[in-house]
Amino acid sequence: MNNFLVHLSRISLPIVVFGLSSLSQVSAFDLDGVAIHGSISGTAAYSDRYNYYGETDGKFDIIQKEITLNGGYRFENGLRIGAQAYAFDLDGYSKLTLDFANLDYSFNQAIGLRVGRNKLPYGLYSEVQDLDQVRIFASLPLPFYPRGLRSLRALYDGGDLYGNIAMGKGGSLDYQLYGGTMPKMDGSEPFIKGLANLSTVDGITPGKTYGGSLVWNTPVDGLKLGYTYQKQPKLKMMGTLATHAVLVPRGYAGVAEMIDAGYGKGTWDNSGLFAGTHSMLELDVVQSAFSAEYTRGDWIATIEYGPTVTKGINTIAALGLNRVPFSSYDNRYYAQVAWQVNKRFGAGVYYAFDDSDPKDENPAPKKFTTLQDIAVGASFALKPWWLLKAEVHVLDGLGGLGVAGDLNPGAINPKWNYLVLKSTISF
Questions:
Q1: Of all residues in the chain, what percent carry a pLDDT higher than 90?
Q2: pLDDT of residue 322
Q3: Which of 242, 247, 362, 396 could be disulfide-bonded to 372 (CB atoms 3.0-4.6 Å)?
Q4: Contact 148, 90 (CB under 8 A)
Q5: Stretch 50-72: mean pLDDT, rounded?
């Protein structure tokens, strides 16, 4: 079954689109009270300068194919069971995941409990990032919700306490409190390929995670304010120490040069004690997001700010107990306005910014640690079940290229453009 779904995720966009477009209608299945829904989508992209989640430099490339299938059932006593499978191919990397599979029971409006595999809340939209029908753009703002980071923000195994607390004239408060563990990730994941400091990353064991989210539905009609918090203590990142030449463009050559200065030139690269040996980065990662959304008629305006603080120790076997401290900070934010013009057509614009070195601790020029994105997008419902989307991105910065896993050796010019086309069939 796994191999079958992963194989399906490799189906080309033209086959999916033209095969399903011949149907007179597409609808959900209902099997003895179990509602089955899903979607099939393909995303193509083009850049005038760089490869970004695919071979997009100067040509169109189908960078992502996705299949989502979910279902749920509610028992007479109020207990609900639900699950979602998600198969995808992103930049040549294919995977089948079980996004969620849980038991859910609401004791009353204020208290509910979900147990099993659950979705992680981050910002306003992380839990609904796969639902094309609820947004204008082909993707959520790239610097704030990078495609490649989905696997690190998608799911966990554990429990979730949730509810809605009525506050009278003060509106109401939606809350979630959760805790559990996250599954391991192999080094071929697109975003892992771009994570690089002293080491090239071979895999990640996220381990435990806990946090919560609050959404205040204010007394102002259409306005809600949100906050999410997530901590991953002792996340382990296994890697292989890179050579001095590889460390230079990353901005981490200082450690290798210090070793060479103390023990002789070439020690880092040629002694067999450093470059080419295994290392482990043990991290405490804290992610937060402050959000505001205002809906008025067919208009939606959103602002989100998401700082990330990462601190830990890089363990290098040859250094024994002299472990190398590591810290990083990341600030992301965006402002977006979307307008659903009519039942078929919608349009939107956003400005987004990501700075992975806000404290200027990295000696690399700022253009390598920042990404500014101005995007204009549109969606058109060719059929109620068939969405077509297009968006143009005008970008300034090279920071996002590393996260994408496409390092684009020799990339210098921070100015580049990116065109995205997406087709989604839902049932």
A1: 58
A2: 61
A3: 396
A4: yes
A5: 94
Confidence of residue 11 (pLDDT cuts 50, 70, 90): very low
Where residue 155 falls among pLDDT bands split at 50, 70, 90? very high
Backbone angles phi, psi at 154, to 5 degrees: -95, -45
* β pairing state of 415-426 and 386-396: antiparallel
User: Helices (H) and strands (E) in the chain — how many of each?
Assistant: 7, 19
What mean pLDDT, rounded, does the chain reach? 87
Phi-psi region of 60 (alpha: psi -120 to 50; beta: other; left: phi over 0): beta
Q: How far apart (Å, rounded) are the C-alpha atoms in residues 58 and 61?
A: 10
Question: Domains in the chain, please, with CATH?
Answer: 2-426 (2.40.160.10)
**E strand or H helix at 16, and its extent?**
helix 13-21
Buried b or exposed e, range 386-404, using 16+ CB within 10 angstroms: bbbbbbebebebbbbbbbb
What's the half-sphere exposure (Cβ side, CA atoms, 13 Å) at 50? 27
Please give the Cα distance from 298 to 377 (Å, whole number). 16
The residues, any chain, with a CB within 8 Å of residue 137's CB and separated by 6 or more, are 338, 348, 350, 375, 377, 379, 389, 391
Q: Is the pLDDT of residue 24 over 60?
A: no
- What span, in angstroms and rounded, lies between the C-alpha atoms of 422 and 137? 9
Q: Give the pLDDT band (50/70/90) at residue 7.
A: very low
Q: How far apart are CA 216 and CA 65, in angstroms?
A: 35
Amino acid in position 263: Y
57: which DSSP letter? Answer: B
- CA nearest to 53, candidates 424, 397, 408: 408
Residue 230, helix vs strand vs coil: strand
How far apart (Å, rounded) are the C-alpha atoms in residues 156 and 182?
5
User: Following CA atoms 170, 303, 381, 377 in sequence, which dihedral angle do they give, to the nearest 10 degrees?
Assistant: 160
